[in-house]
Design a protein that fits this description.
Length: 330
């Protein structure tokens, strides 16, 4: 069973004399920085001088500096810029300001696990990864409930890395809900696998294929959209709230029988083989190498795939139908 930590396991006083720099002010950055600040910690935000978020940080009442300035001043540098930018930001702006007994930390293990960032041996390296988008990290903190998170220590130079990580997690609210012990390898590999195989990759391809089959069979694309895409949220919400059994208990007997008998024919042995292949590419580092080279080349493959996705009929029909449902924007 996993080791889980809660508020009583963490002490904010561990950070009382330390300065925390949050590098980046996007979805996670704004939430974590504001939560740490509201927890009474000394927080600065590190941004590029040209960042459009600079004024927003000031409006939110936080101290903002350039990334090199923030890294040089801080004891703990929490890196929340996109994965593909982290190694360059680290090399150019963070590493020169690192001192012995500092800590660098992350909310995703990609760059540490795949050796894109190799910290000096005299600094702590840890990860605190909230399992939710940033807006929910912020909202639940204000509600006093927090979101679950993951904790991992990659390098314990000071002997206090785990306690520092627990305090950081408490500062953003994760220990209220529960903090699960993991490793950089486990978090990175399972996160990539979930994104590629079902959460992002698998589900979108299944939606498009199901939609295309209905349209090719002569059904109206508007009807196909509702039955293959729109109603997916209803099902996911039921699963999210109470697991698979809750969903099966909530749908009709017809849907349950059809789903349980046909589903395994759709996600079959060939599908499983493709999943294992995806996992092997992740574990071997092949996917990481591919994505790093793609990013350095200016993302030509990703840009082409995005254009193809945006031009798909399901997106055209969906845009028209969603205009009939203004409540979706709220």
């Amino acid at each position: 069973m996993a080791q889980i930590y809660y508020d009583n396991d963490a002490d904010l006083n561990t950070l009382k004399d330390k300065t925390v720099a949050v590098i980046g002010y996007g979805s996670q950055g704004h939430a974590q920085a504001q939560n740490l600040n509201d927890s009474g910690l000394n927080v600065i935000v590190g941004l590029q001088k040209s960042s459009k978020s600079w004024a927003q940080v000031e409006n939110d009442g936080l101290k903002v500096m350039t990334v090199p300035e923030a890294a040089a001043e801080a004891d703990i540098i929490h890196i929340l810029v996109p994965d593909e930018l982290q190694s360059q930001v680290y090399a150019d702006d963070i590493k020169p300001g690192l001192e012995a007994n500092n800590a660098i930390s992350f909310s995703h293990g990609f760059n540490i696990h795949f050796n894109q960032i190799i910290p000096p041996e005299d600094v702590d390296v840890f990860m605190i990864a909230p399992k939710s988008p940033g807006h929910l990290v912020r909202r639940t903190y204000l509600e006093g409930i927090g979101v679950p998170g993951l904790i991992a220590v990659h390098q314990n130079a000071t002997g206090e890395a785990h306690n520092i990580a627990l305090a950081y997690a408490k500062g953003i609210g994760c220990t209220k809900a529960g903090l699960i012990e993991t490793t950089f390898a486990e978090e990175t590999e399972t996160d990539l696998f979930g994104e590629q195989v079902d959460l992002c990759g698998g589900v979108t391809c299944m939606i498009k294929t199901a939609f295309e089959i209905l349209v090719e069979a002569g059904y109206q694309p508007e009807i196909a959209y509702f039955e293959t895409l729109h109603e997916l949220k209803l099902i996911v919400d039921l699963i999210h709230e109470g697991g698979l059994s809750n969903m099966w208990d909530s749908v009709s007997n017809t849907a349950e029988y059809g789903g349980l008998t046909v589903g395994p024919k759709i996600i079959n042995e060939q599908s499983e083989d493709a999943m294992y292949e995806a996992l092997e590419k992740i574990q071997s580092g092949e996917f990481a190498r591919e994505w790093i080279l793609e990013s350095r080349a200016g993302r030509p493959v990703l840009n082409a795939l995005e254009r193809r996705e945006n031009d798909h009929l399901v997106e055209e029909i969906g845009s028209e139908l969603r205009a009939m449902m203004p409540w979706l924007k709220s």
